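As a next step, we paired sequence with structure tokens, yielding the entry below.
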Amino acid sequence: MRWVLWLAYTLFAGALLEGCALLAAPAVMEGGSLVGDVGFAAPALTASSQITQSKLGARMAALQAEAIREQLRDQRAQKEQKATERAVTVGLIHEMASWEHDPLLADLAVWVKAGGDPQFALNFALKQSKEDEKQARAGAGAP
């Protein structure tokens, strides 16, 4: 029975080293079902192997905790960047609205401040500004 565990462990460890853990999973599951069929229980693990597994589990938990902290730092940085982009966009559109005396752009700035898409709003404001400029030129008869 120990050879079944050894085989399963060897296949699983070899696959992990090769980066093919998904290929090793069926072999480990098969080994586990064979052991279960025979009635062999896991208490045959030695104290040293239990300590080793305990240390590995603690190391894995520490690595997972660090990965989660890194993800949280990244998310916080992205949130701060989006807030900065939103504030800059609101300021730009508000200034455009004041300069052009356009209530539509003022409403657009309020919409962005309330959670609207800053990129869409900025593109819309620039397009609106270009159209207004074209109309002003056409109305003044300028070439």
User: Anything to note?
Assistant: Residues 74-143 form one domain. The radius of gyration is 32 Å. Residues 19-25 have pLDDT under 50 and may be disordered.
